[in-house]
Every structure is written in C-alpha cells, then in structure tokens.
C-alpha cells in the first residue's frame, strides 16, 4: 500500500473502502508513483522513531512506478519549530530500493517525508545516450530535446532562463554530434534539474522523528544513596556531603549520577534492615515508600537538605561533567498526602483498607499503588504526575529513571512524556529493564529513550 496521500499532488481524500470498487475518478486520483516500506518509521508513523543529534539518519524506501522512466526521489525534513524544509537527494540501490540520509542538528521533534517524481529529462538523456551509442538515427530525439529545453526556459526566470536560452542557441547552430554532446552534457543536466517540473509528483506522509542527546544512546551511570554518604553511621548523609564524591565519580569515567527517590519516607509499615517487617525508631526505611507529613513526590526528604542544597548539587555536578538523574517511582507510602487529599486516586478494599503492592513472591507492605483509571483519578492524577516531573525539570533535572514502567498504562507514558518533551526536548526517560519484549517495544514507542 502506498504511504502517500492520494493524488499526484496529495489533494484527494475520498478514498473508497477496500471492499468497494474504485470509480474512474478515484482511480485517476491515485498516485502513479508508489512510496512504501519507508524506514526509520514506527507503526506507519503512529510513533516517532529515534535519532541522536549530529548523527546521520539513514532513510530507505521502496519507490516505483509503471514503465521504464527514470525517477527522482528526495528526502525533505525540518525540526518541529522550523518553518523551512531542508532537502537532499536519495540514490537508487536497485530493485526499486532507494537510500538517502540527513543529519539533525538540534534536540527536537523532527518530521521527514519523501517526494518522488518522473525525471522526464533524465529519462530522455538515458534513451538518447543509448540510441546514439548504438548507431540508431536520433534526428527526432534531437527535436524532442529541443522541446524539453524550450519548456524548461518557459518555467525558468532571470539568469537560469538566459542560460537555457543560450543552450537553445547553441543547439540550433551545431551539427548532430555537437547537439548530442550538448544535450548529454552535465551542465545541461544540472540546469534542467533546476527547471524540473516534477511530473507526477508524489509525497509520502510526514513521519515523526525524536532527536535526543548523545547520553540517550550511551552513558555510564553511577548510583548513589545520598543518605549513605556520611562518615558517621549515626548521622544521615546530605546533599552537601555528596560534593566531595563528585571528583571521584568523574575520574572513574561516569557521565550520570543517579539518585534513588529523594523524597520523604512514610512511617506506616516501614521496613527495617534486610527487608524485615519491623523497623526500629532510627531505621530510615525504603526510599521507595514515598510520602509523609513532610510531602510527597514533589518534596525533598528533610534530612537530605534544602531545595537550595539540591540546586547547588545539580550545578556542582554539572561543573564536574556529571548530570543528576532522579528516580521517578509512581508509588506511595500509606502516609503519602494523596491518600487524604485524593482518596479517589486509589483502589480501596470492601473493608476500607488499601491493598499493598505485591509481585509474588515479593511483598511491599510499605507501598501502595495509585489507580490510573479510577473515576476520580482522571484527569487529576495524570496532570499531577506530569507537573511533578516538570517541577524537577525546573530544578535542573533532565534525566529520569522510571521504576517499573511496564506496570503503568502505556497511554499515560505516551501522553506524559510527550507533554514534557514538547516543552523540554532535552529531557530523557529511561525505564528499568522489564521482562516482556512487547512492553520494551511499547515503552520505546511511548517516548522512552
């Protein structure tokens, strides 16, 4: 099936249902040139393919039409915030396969499309060369060449028109061999390419392409619990304590300094050492049991330091060539403010209790999950989670490691990541490895790096 909108100029939309026969009018609107099997394209362009800034994007496609005419195929592309299209020619590989490339120069959403048309003068030159070389009379072909030049001059302006008219003058004065040489000359081909009327032009649909930073392709991550950076086991580590580790981490060759959740930790059902169900008064609990009277996902654990301390650490890390990545874990302790402020964001059992998180045989008694499709959770929960991410982006965080992305709805990721990257295309989302290949692929379609 052709990927371009119907009609030589992509104007027709009244395409019949596949079970209905074509009318003559509809058949005449169908493209003469077929563009199909274009890559890189995900699900026909429903999702964006991925690329890295500064690295060539190789585009391949099957392009063909009836007959033996030569064709020309171009890639056209632009960044989403650009008005001007860029263009580069594709080259035929044989068997109707074409290849070309372009290099994105900004971190942004891009779109690209293919344009193909019958190269009428190129087809003419090919036939003239073959016939003349075989000793076939070409008197009529020479007249056809003159007509090609006349029409090209009519389509051209200023200097280009003068150059083609000069060729016409030379054509009238030369003998047969000189006329053939003139029509086959590379300069003539160049001028005619500029004046090409792009006969039977077909365009593909526009395909999306997300261009990301180099760190999305490869980065070395160092995981660190800020609360553990202390020389006194009785004292909770802080953001300020991490500063002394930055040169060491940099010198080991790491690019990213990754923190597990840095938010307040609940006390209800807090875990003790080695995942024990009984916590002592000084046990800090799991950082994944997010939320207490001190706040939720938007807040910082008070023992780690202030928001200003966090900003200073982000800047200091950047000064050492490191980027801070935060864990985005969509789960709550039973002390999370949302349970009181938005009880409708959770699923409650008939006896009024809430089910804790389980992944048998694993049990997480200190964690409860939100219900993305609870009636009261739409749209409030979705918007709140988006705004939490945007809040941390405003604090200088550009990389998020997402815990268990396969346990959250794919439509949510597609929407939320799109919302964030539309405002901040440099932001990256990396999902913790999941175990189902289909989920991995769908996560990539949803916007994960």
TrEMBL record:
Residues 31-213 form the Alpha-1,4-glucan:maltose-1-phosphate maltosyltransferase domain. GO terms for biological process: carbohydrate metabolic process. Coiled coil: none annotated. The keyword Hydrolase applies. The keyword Hydrolase applies. Keywords: Hydrolase. GO terms for molecular function: hydrolase activity, hydrolyzing O-glycosyl compounds. It comes from the Bacteria. This is Glycosyl hydrolase family protein.
């Amino acid at each position: 099936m052709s990927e371009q909108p119907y009609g030589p100029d992509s104007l027709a939309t009244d395409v019949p249902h596949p079970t209905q026969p074509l009318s003559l009018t509809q058949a005449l609107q169908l493209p003469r040139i077929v563009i199909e099997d274009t890559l890189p394209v995900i699900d026909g362009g429903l999702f964006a393919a991925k690329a890295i800034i500064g690295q060539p994007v190789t585009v391949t496609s099957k392009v063909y039409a009836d007959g033996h005419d030569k064709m020309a195929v171009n890639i056209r592309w632009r960044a989403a915030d650009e008005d001007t299209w860029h263009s580069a020619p594709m080259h035929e590989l044989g068997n109707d396969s074409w290849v070309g490339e372009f290099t994105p120069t900004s971190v942004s959403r891009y779109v690209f499309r293919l344009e193909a048309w019958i190269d009428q003068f190129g087809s003419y030159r090919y036939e003239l060369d073959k016939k003349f070389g075989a000793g076939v009379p070409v008197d009529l072909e020479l007249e056809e060449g003159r007509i090609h030049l006349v029409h090209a001059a009519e389509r051209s302006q200023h200097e280009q028109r003068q150059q083609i008219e000069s060729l016409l003058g030379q054509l009238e004065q030369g003998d047969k061999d000189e006329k053939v040489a003139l029509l086959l000359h590379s300069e003539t081909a160049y001028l005619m390419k500029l004046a090409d009327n792009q006969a039977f032009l077909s365009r593909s649909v526009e395909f999306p392409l997300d261009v990301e930073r180099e760190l999305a392709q490869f980065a070395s991550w160092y995981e660190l619990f800020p609360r553990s950076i202390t020389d006194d086991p009785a004292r909770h580590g802080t953001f300020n304590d991490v500063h002394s580790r930055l040169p060491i981490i940099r010198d080991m060759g790491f690019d990213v300094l990754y923190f597990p959740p840095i938010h307040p930790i609940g006390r209800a059902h807090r875990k003790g050492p080695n995942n024990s169900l009984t916590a002592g008064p000084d046990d800090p609990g799991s950082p994944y049991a997010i939320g207490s009277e001190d706040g939720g996902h938007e807040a910082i654990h008070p023992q780690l330091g202030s928001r200003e301390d966090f900003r200073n650490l982000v800047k200091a890390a950047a000064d050492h060539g490191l980027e801070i990545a935060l864990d985005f874990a969509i789960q709550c302790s039973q002390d999370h403010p949302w349970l009181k402020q938005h009880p409708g964001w959770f699923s409650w059992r008939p006896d009024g209790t809430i089910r804790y998180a389980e992944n048998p045989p694993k049990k997480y008694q200190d964690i409860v999950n939100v219900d993305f499709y609870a009636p009261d959770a739409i749209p409030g929960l979705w918007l709140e989670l988006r705004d939490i991410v945007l809040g941390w982006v405003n604090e200088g965080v550009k990389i998020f490691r997402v815990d268990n992305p396969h346990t959250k709805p794919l439509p949510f990721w597609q929407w939320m990541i799109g919302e964030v990257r539309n405002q901040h295309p440099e932001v990256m989302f990396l999902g913790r490895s999941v175990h189902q290949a289909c989920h991995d692929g769908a996560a990539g379609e949803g916007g994960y790096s």
